[in-house]
Design brief:
There is one protein chain. This protein has about 110 residues and is mostly helical. It has a domain of about 80 residues. Helices cover about 60% and strands about 0% of the residues. It is built from 4 helices and no strands. The protein is globular, with a radius of gyration of 14 Å.
């Protein structure tokens, strides 16, 4: 991760975020973790089992960090830019869900 660059807006940060998420498996893990995060959120709100909310960061970050450490081979931007990174996770999730982004990228085509 380029720690020298200081991003001053989400718009500036998001292209960097995408560059750190090129691996197909990593994108799939990010998407899966975010999807499960929403399931947990709605389950906790519906059932009013509030301790379930504690699972959200474990699931969200767990899936993402596996993607970074084992597939991207980089450090998550969360450590340097926690709010931009979190917002970008949700943006990427939406873009993957709506087809605005692909799970497969040009730099890591599927076999």
């Amino acid at each position: 991760m380029n720690v020298e660059k200081k991003y001053r807006s989400l718009k500036e940060f998001y292209p960097f975020y995408l560059s750190e998420h090129r691996d197909t498996t990593s994108r799939t893990l990010h998407f899966t973790g975010t999807f499960i995060l929403f399931i947990i959120l709605f389950w906790a709100l519906f059932t009013q089992i509030w301790w379930g909310l504690a699972l959200i960061p474990v699931v969200g970050y767990g899936f993402a960090w596996v993607g970074h450490y084992f597939f991207e081979k980089n450090t998550p931007a969360t450590f340097q830019y926690p709010f931009y990174s979190l917002a970008s996770d949700f943006i990427l999730f939406w873009h993957l869900l709506t087809g605005q982004e692909k799970f497969n990228t040009d730099s890591n085509p599927s076999p």
